[in-house]
From TrEMBL:
It is found in: Peroxisome. The keyword Membrane does not apply. Monomer. The keyword 4Fe-4S does not apply. It catalyses: a (3E)-enoyl-CoA = a 4-saturated (2E)-enoyl-CoA; (3S)-hydroxydecanoyl-CoA + NAD(+) = 3-oxodecanoyl-CoA + NADH + H(+); (3E)-decenoyl-CoA = (2E)-decenoyl-CoA; (2E)-hexadecenedioyl-CoA + H2O = (3S)-hydroxyhexadecanedioyl-CoA. Residues 474-578, 615-702 form the 3-hydroxyacyl-CoA dehydrogenase C-terminal domain. Gene3D superfamilies: 1.10.1040.50, 2-enoyl-CoA Hydratase, Chain A, domain 1 (3.90.226.10), NAD(P)-binding Rossmann-like Domain (3.40.50.720). Pathway: Lipid metabolism; fatty acid beta-oxidation. In the C-terminal section; belongs to the 3-hydroxyacyl-CoA dehydrogenase family. Belongs to the enoyl-CoA hydratase/isomerase family. This is Peroxisomal bifunctional enzyme. GO terms for biological process: fatty acid beta-oxidation. Its main location: other.
């Protein structure tokens, strides 16, 4: 867990050895304590260097240990003892120094950093605070404003920024450990008192209260309802107003308020869920660690609409040559200008040069014959997509992978019109595709494991969080969206307003309420899907009661909104009104209010007061209920996958963990009871009927999310 060596006859070199990130598990803390004691007591040792094995200093406390009882030496006294020792200690930082790892570096008397290393205190992203003295030492070292920013955001910084801020003593391109040993030898004769950060006086700005107030407001605006950043601010205040001995106690008290909170559990769950999602597995036994992806050097995108443009940018900026295809000259030229602009802005922001030389724009599919992979991003129309896939089959070399960016159409039906169904897979990007991190990789029944591995690995290369899902209408994300949207519109019928529903969801923590999100996405998309699926239009049986379709409750209000040409932000009107087409400032629209009143009086609906609790329960429990069905159907392999999709694609608050984790946190029994209650009140809404899996899990004593898989005995996995 830590290796101890004597080097250069007088330097104790302590190497943390806990792969993959040298996390400070109880065993590592124990080994550090023992090694330090040895070093401080050995008269041969004049100085100490601490480094990490495999080019990684330390990824912080072992997050997996947070769930169990605390064992091993506590971190604060261990770190205090290192700082207080009479022999100079130098941290040799390579790779990462994060969280407790950074706090370990802060108690060392000197810090030598490799130029590629990243440092930071990301505890806030895990729902806790840097409680190993980080909130007390960092402000003393770099001042309140800079420390506040780093601690409340959890941002990682580069070695260069750390040097500029005064956190580290030297940045090197050489081996940081070797340099640190030389540095330590030179430090032997020097006094240590000024190097003990906890002994420094915190440089305090004259307007401390105003500063803290401004940061508090900013944090509340950005992360509504999230506890950890507010606790961080209070801890930093203690660093400014108290001696270290008292400040460290305050830090510990504040940590105690967070450590076992639901938010901390949810955020830590998200950390692991995100990593679990990359570990896809198929019933055939093919999985992430036994399926080799193909190397993708060139790709083609068909269609330069909003999605296509974002996909081109995502590919080109990671060095893949892209041929972009449009059907008309004017569309091609517009698309080209927009892609170039996006890439130039992106490159400027990242301080690199735009990879425009990788792009080619064409009107001819014939130009695609040699590419490694094609992503079709044409209009959401099955007949059109089939024509494109047939054509691609003819022009592309037999080994080219054919992918579709459909947001819900049958990937296998597209595979069926090609000469290579095993090389067809869905790559469902989210808009704007160069910004949104989620990628649903839709595995058709005939997609080969190599094809899936390639799509997953390409997603990772583009910086996406890729989740493998099965093929069904809407896949995972959009399939679950339907009951969520339905509940929101039923609540409108019953007396709520779009503003009220959005506010309840945004107070819950969603980045955007359901109606603001729909306005952003465009209301015409769903309208077209409803027409195509026979819910509206000439196919509807005239004898059908007006608020029922296909034997269940149906709310026609969204169709009425679209009939007025209100398609959302792009038309300047939707569920809200905007200053102009494309505007983003949503204001309540009296015309929508009138429409709702007329609608209710036409159907004799007596509006009632609807509580925020009912809004949250009906929308979110219906969402999770569909998630349970998706697990039963084998469309998602694990609840973690569903949660990751909702966190990265649909703005579900991270501190809620995602719909499935949220359901488990509320208590499955409670979710079941509320769904039964609402289904009784609305028997014509099948989505409110509790799913068999939910009932089964409750009957099994509501196991934690990580154990649900053991209870899913699906015979027909679609993955
Ligand atoms: C017990 C009470 C103590 C109170 C002390 C309070 C003060 C200290 C608190 C902390 O230190 S909290 C932890 C702060 N550190 C972090 O948040 C860092 C988290 N890790 C990362 O950001 C990344 O993993 C990385 C270090 C930047 C490396 O990224 P990379 O992409 O290279 O690898 P990953 O796939 O992310 O991770 C590999 C592997 O390692 C697991 N892991 C990473 N960090 C930790 C950790 N701190 N604890 C436990 N496990 C960790 C990660 O889950 C991966 O494993 P698998 O999930 O794939 O099995």
């Amino acid at each position: 867990m830590a290796r101890y060596e004597l080097v250069k006859r007088s330097v104790a070199l302590i190497t943390l050895t806990n792969p993959p990130v040298n996390a400070l598990s109880s065993a590592v803390r124990h080994a550090i304590a023992k090694s330090m004691e040895h070093a401080l007591n050995d008269p041969k040792v004049k100085a100490v260097v601490i480094c990490g094995e495999n080019g990684r200093f330390c990824g912080g406390a072992d997050i997996r240990e947070f769930a169990g009882p605390l064992r091993g030496p506590p971190l604060v006294p261990l770190l205090d003892a290192i700082e207080a020792g009479e022999k100079p200690v130098v941290a040799a930082i390579e790779g990462v120094a994060l969280g407790g790892g950074f706090e370990l570096a802060l108690v060392c008397h000197y810090r030598i950093v490799h130029f590629k290393a990243r440092l930071g205190l990301p505890e806030v992203t895990l729902g806790i605070l840097p409680a190993a003295g980080g909130t007390q030492r960092l402000p003393r070292l770099i001042g309140i404003p800079a420390a506040l920013e780093l601690i409340t955001t959890g941002r990682h910084i580069s070695a260069q920024e750390a040097l500029k801020l005064g956190i580290v003593d030297q940045v090197t391109e050489q081996n940081a450990c070797e340099l640190a040993v030389e540095f330590a030898l030179r430090a032997v004769a020097k006094p240590l008192s000024s190097r003990r950060v906890s002994m420094l006086t915190t440089p305090c700005p004259p307007d401390l209260d105003a500063l803290l107030e401004a940061v508090t407001m900013q944090v509340k605006r950005k992360a509504r309802g999230v506890m950890a950043p507010l606790a961080c601010i209070q801890a930093v205040r203690a660093a400014a107003t108290m001696p270290y001995s008292k400040g460290i106690k305050r830090e510990s008290e504040l940590m105690a308020t967070l450590f076992n909170s639901g938010q901390a559990r949810a955020l830590q769950y998200c950390f692991f869920a995100q990593r679990t999602a990359g570990k896809w597995t198929l019933p055939s036994g093919a999985q992430w660690n036994n399926s080799k992806p193909r190397e993708i050097r060139s790709a083609a995108i068909i269609g330069l609409g909003t999605m296509g443009r974002g996909i081109v940018v995502s590919l080109a900026r990671v060095g893949i040559s892209v041929i972009a295809v449009e059907s008309e000259k004017k569309l091609l030229e517009t698309g080209k200008q927009m892609v170039i602009g996006m890439l130039e802005r992106d490159a400027k922001r990242r301080g690199v040069s735009a990879s425009l030389n990788l792009l080619k724009f064409t009107l001819s599919l014939q130009d695609l014959k040699d590419v490694d992979l094609v992503i079709e991003a044409v209009f959401e129309d099955m007949a059109l997509k089939k024509r494109v896939f047939q054509e691609l089959s003819k022009v592309c070399r037999p080994a080219t992978l054919l992918c579709t960016n459909t947001s819900g159409l049958d990937v296998d039906a597209l595979a069926g019109v090609t000469d290579r169904p095993h090389l067809v897979v869905g790559m469902h990007f989210f808009s704007p595709a160069h910004v949104m991190k989620l990628l649903e990789v839709v595995c058709g029944p005939r997609s080969s494991s190599e094809t899936i591995a390639t799509a997953m690995s390409l997603g990772k290369r583009m910086g996406k969080v890729s989740v493998a899902v099965g093929n069904c209408p809407g896949f995972v994300g959009n399939r679950m969206l339907k009951p969520y949207l339905d509940q929101a519109t039923f609540l409108l019928e019953e007396g709520a307003t779009p503003e009220q529903i959005d506010k309840a969801l945004e107070d819950f923590g969603f980045a955007m309420g359901v109606f603001r999100m729909s306005d952003l996405a465009g209301l015409d998309v769903g309208w077209r899907v409803r027409k195509e699926s026979g819910l509206i239009g000439p196919d509807v049986d005239p004898k059908n009661p007006p608020r029922r379709r296909q034997g269940r409750r149906y709310c026609p209000i969204p169709d009425m909104v679209c009939e007025q040409g209100r398609f959302g932000q792009k038309t300047g009107r939707g569920w809200y009104m905007y200053d102009k087409p494309g505007g983003t400032n949503a204001k309540p629209d009296p015309l929508i209010q009138n429409l709702l009143e007329m609608y209710r009086s036409r159907y004799g609906i007596q509006p009632r007061n609807i509580s925020d609790q009912e809004i949250i329960e009906r929308c979110l429990f219906a969402l999770a209920n569909e998630g349970f069905r998706i697990l039963e159907d084998g469309i998602a392999a694990r609840p973690e996958d569903i949660d990751v999709i909702y966190l990265f694609g649909y703005g579900f608050p991270r501190h809620g963990g995602g719909p499935m984790f949220y359901a488990s946190m509320v208590g499955l029994e409670r979710v079941l009871e509320r769904l039964e209650h609402y289904h009784q009140a609305h028997p014509d809404v099948p989505h409110l009927e509790p799913s068999p899996l939910l009932k089964k899990l409750v009957a099994c004593g509501s196991p934690p999310v990580q154990k649900w898989r053991e209870h899913i005995k699906t015979m027909h996995s679609h993955l």
